[in-house]
Design goal:
heterodimer; A: 134 residues; alpha+beta; four-stranded antiparallel beta sheet; 3 helices; 4 strands; 54% helix; B: 173 residues; rod-shaped
Chain lengths: 134, 173
């Protein structure tokens, strides 16, 4: 090593560049595993079928009891069915209400509010439900 | 005769070798990224299939008519009706697969509110004799609006309509 000279500095510089490039590649690989995992977990935890199911139950309820006043015992009981069973069997706090029928572009629709929370996912929706058949 | 000339070339050679090895490793490892979630994809497919079948069975043939699922639930508890519901459900699951899929098993439960207001879950179909409780099962559910009138569900107020939850445990042996 006694008689070192300064030849080959370009080679050393390029070596440094390659090293930096490799570092970034490694970083990207590292992150990609994390991204894949969180995405998959997000998909798994999202209760898509539960929410679709609940919407269907609420729309059925709207079809049957939309015109019935809120004080009606049967209407209250069916609403309580959905709330109680959701809590007991699906660990979800559910709340929904159906408003007075309104006319939208000549169509009669019920404003429906749905709230769903299972501790991980919170879902709120306000939707105008058209009765399937009059 | 040993001297120390050419040491830098040796070091460079080693460095280049390491870089090539690292590159090869990186290229090979990018082709597949393992995620723990991947192992659950078959479960998700099974859940979607069961969910779709229940939705299909709850669709009435004609507007305003009673759906097949409501009919089964009304006659359901105890022994006979629930088993028919399970068999029909399994038949529908296998409809498009061109495969008898003998390994597919199901168990149907019903959750409802009793006349005293508490929630009860009762098995609709008879218990699978091979069921151990350790199967990798998925649970699919469907809300059903049960009209008033006579049905054989224990301890239920038959004078009012009910919203009940049909739950199906689905697994492969």
């Amino acid at each position: 090593m006694a008689c070192m000279n300064e030849d080959g500095q370009w080679i050393v510089l390029m070596g440094l560049l390659v090293a930096v490039g490799l570092f970034f590649l490694a970083l990207i690989i590292n992150q990609s595993a994390l991204v894949g995992q969180t995405t998959a977990e997000g998909v798994l935890e999202f209760p898509k079928n539960d929410i679709r199911d609940l919407r269907k139950a609420v729309f059925d309820y709207t079809d049957k009891f939309g015109m019935v006043p809120d004080t009606d015992e049967t209407k209250k009981n069916v609403q309580e069915d959905i709330i109680a069973i959701s809590l007991e069997r699906k660990n979800a706090v559910v709340s929904f209400s159906v408003g007075q029928r309104v006319s939208i572009s000549g169509q009669q629709a019920y404003p429906v509010e749905i709230h769903y929370n299972n501790g991980v996912t919170e879902y709120d929706e306000t939707v105008y439900h058209y009765r399937a058949y009059e | 005769m040993v001297n120390d000339s050419g040491q830098l070339y040796t070091m460079e050679g080693i460095a280049a070798g390491l870089v090539m090895l690292l590159t090869a490793y990186l290229i090979l490892s990018t082709t597949s990224i393992y995620t723990p979630g991947d192992t659950h994809i078959p479960d998700m497919q099974l859940e979607q299939l069961g969910s779709d079948v229940l939705a299909m069975m709850d669709t009435p043939d004609r507007e305003g008519e009673e759906s097949q699922l409501v009919g089964f639930v009304k006659n359901g508890t105890g022994t006979c009706g629930g088993d028919e519901l399970r068999d029909e459900f399994l038949d529908n699951c296998k409809m498009r697969s061109d495969d008898p899929d003998e390994n597919l098993r199901a168990q149907v439960y019903l959750s409802y509110r009793r006349s005293d207001g508490s929630v009860n879950t009762t098995p609709l179909s008879s218990v699978d004799p091979e069921f151990t409780g350790r199967e990798n099962a998925v649970r699919v559910t469907h809300w059903v609006h049960l009209p008033p009138g006579s049905h054989s569900i224990p301890n239920i107020d038959t004078s009012r309509p009910h919203a009940v939850l049909v739950e199906v445990l689905l697994w492969r042996v």
